[in-house]
Design a protein that fits this description.
Distance between the termini: 21 Å
Structural class: alpha+beta
Number of helices: 2
Shape: globular
Length: about 60
């Protein structure tokens, strides 16, 4: 993904703009979490609004 990312306190945040989440869907980037992405997209009031993805980072 070619967008802005940020990490803090063991979490990784990724900003997905419309073209990013569309590419993620086309490539099945989120695998078993794809339905959660689709649900988030349905709640957007404007398709151009970004989605922020929050990951827990663990080793």
């Amino acid at each position: 993904m070619r967008n802005k990312t940020y990490a803090k306190d063991g979490y990784f945040y990724q900003l997905l703009r419309q073209e990013d989440w569309q590419m993620a869907l086309d490539r099945s980037y989120f695998g078993k979490y794809e339905n959660e992405l689709l649900e988030s997209i349905q709640h957007l009031t404007d398709e151009e609004d970004p989605i922020i993805v929050k990951y827990k980072v663990s080793l």
